[in-house]
Design goal:
It is a single chain. β1 and β2 form a beta hairpin. α21 packs across α23. The chain has 23 helices and 2 strands. Belongs to the phosphatase 2A regulatory subunit B56 family. Keywords: Cytoplasm.
């Protein structure tokens, strides 16, 4: 009886059981343990990766010698070798000294190439252990903080005059990116399992890497993020929100980010896939993220991609044209002629897709601004504004609304004919004026008469101000100076003037 009672009690684990379980864990983490022999800075990465990917390394998979070739093991062992090589590649080397650990670096690079070739051959079977090991290896190698000097650029990205900075570790990073791209593009990848490891934290760290100074890295990330967006549908709202937050921080806080152009390239294709009618979330992205992107000084770096995104929205929903044009007018540059040229080019592209109803909503403030551009002393800006009349769609809108538009732009055209310094602008102005005369000569004469009347009133007001100042100067000349104090002895009748 006593034996039966004792048998039902929970048995205390023996020392041998503890050692066995520890041995099992050590087998599963053999390569991870060896990788900790790197620099102290790497230990931080180790702790981060173990938190992101808890107890996932080759769970239940027996270790295989990672230095073997895939050709040298039977098919039944290839998946185990695949995981072993992934664990081996978790060792991160520093490339500041190209001669340090050269043999180990070459060995790791060879292992990375073998992994890519194995996945490319279609022989890989991404079990949960393989998915976990792949994501862990990519996280350890790719996720890193950029040195402060990378962020010292005051212009918020590379400019045309600057040489891009290349990461010395690219010989390894490039292959890791290639492996990650093939992983997320793998046709037989189980998305339900993979999304546990390619999660929000993983995606957010990828997006942070888009601020890299190396254009090669940004280009790889662009492709990978696009594939993740396409394959992991559950993560799409999060990706859109995360990119929006990056743009908000760039526009309203730092104006420093190297990957805005690449992020916009991703969204160019994303926007083209939006279903109709557009969700309110997507319209808010246009008004709160894309339109304010016209504000930063470095807009020229990503303006082509930005224009494409904006045009995609208007193609989806033409009613948004008036919203975009109002935004352009809000952020219209006053002292930057190069930005003004970009805005005029984008404006013409938008006007080509703008219907009459939307055009009439914004034509008054729009052509007030175009009038200033027609009269610009920067000849390229003035030329570009005149070229709007060469666009048939825009000209058709102008023709049908000439009663409103001509009075807004006629003073600028008249001033150009009188005193613009550039002959090419003068010739364009005469051509535009001739177009208006052919449209409605009576309206042109009326505008001219009104302008002459306003000029006459302006001349009279200027003459009145001149006479007023003459009286004030005459009155001031009769001020006697004595005893070091100035006393104003002015006859009140003499100083009675009206402005």
């Amino acid at each position: 009886m006593i034996k039966q009672i004792l048998s039902k009690l929970p048995r205390k684990s023996s020392k041998s059981d503890t050692l066995a379980s520890a041995g099992s864990d050590s087998n599963n983490n053999t390569n991870l343990g060896s990788s900790i022999q790197c620099s102290n800075g790497l230990n931080v990465v180790r702790r981060m990766s173990s938190a992101v990917f808890p107890s996932m390394v080759a769970a239940g998979v027996e270790a295989v010698e990672p230095h073997l070739s895939f050709k040298d093991v039977p098919n039944t062992e290839k998946q185990k070798l695949f995981v072993s090589k992934l664990n081996l590649c978790c060792v991160v080397y520093h490339f500041n000294d190209p001669d340090k650990d050269q043999a180990e670096k070459d060995s790791k690079r060879q292992a990375l190439i073998e992994l890519v070739d194995f996945v490319a051959s279609g022989s890989a079977k991404f079990s949960e252990a393989a998915i976990a090991a792949t994501c862990k290896m990519c996280a350890i190698n790719l996720f890193r903080d950029f040195p402060p000097k990378y962020r010292s650029n005051s212009t918020g990205g590379e400019t045309e005059d600057e040489e891009p900075m290349f990461d010395p570790a690219w010989s390894h990073l490039q292959i890791v990116y290639d492996l990650l791209l093939r992983f997320v593009s793998y046709s037989s990848l189980d998305v339900k399992v993979a999304k546990k490891y390619v999660d929000h934290s993983f995606i957010l760290r990828l997006l942070e890497l888009s601020d890299s100074e190396d254009p090669r890295e940004r280009d790889c990330l662009k492709t990978i993020l696009h594939r993740i967006y396409g394959k992991f549908m559950v993560h799409r709202p999060f990706i859109r929100k995360a990119v929006s937050n990056i743009i908000y921080r760039f526009v309203f806080e730092t104006e420093r980010h190297n990957g805005i152009a690449e992020l916009l390239e991703i969204f160019g294709s994303v926007i083209s896939g939006f279903a109709l009618p557009l969700k309110e979330e997507h319209k808010m992205f246009l008004s709160r993220a894309l339109i304010p992107l016209h504000k930063p000084k470095s807009v020229g770096i990503y303006h082509q991609q930005l224009t494409y995104c904006v045009v995609q929205f208007i193609e989806k929903e033409p009613k948004l044209a008036s919203v975009v044009i109002k935004g352009l007018l809000k952020y219209w540059p006053v002292t930057n002629s190069q930005k003004e040229l970009m805005f005029l080019s984008e404006l013409e592209e938008i006007l080509e897709m703008t219907g009459m109803v939307e055009f009439q909503k914004i034509m008054v403030p729009l052509f007030r601004r175009i009038g200033y551009c027609l009269n610009s002393s920067h000849f390229q800006v003035a030329e570009r504004a005149h070229f709007l009349w060469n666009n048939e769609h825009v000209l058709n809108h102008i023709t049908q609304n000439r009663q409103v538009i001509l009075p807004l732009v006629f003073p600028a055209l008249e001033r150009n004919t009188r005193n613009h310094w550039n002959q090419a602008v003068l010739n364009l102005t005469l051509n535009v004026r001739k177009m208006f005369c052919e449209m409605d000569e009576e309206l042109v004469l009326a505008c001219q008469g009104k302008l002459e009347e306003e000029d006459s009133k302006s001349s009279m007001a200027a003459e009145k101000r001149r006479l007023t100042w003459e009286r004030l100067e005459t009155a001031a000349s009769f001020q006697p100076v004595g005893g070091g104090n100035i006393s104003f002895l002015v006859n009140p009748a003499t100083c009675s003037v009206t402005c």
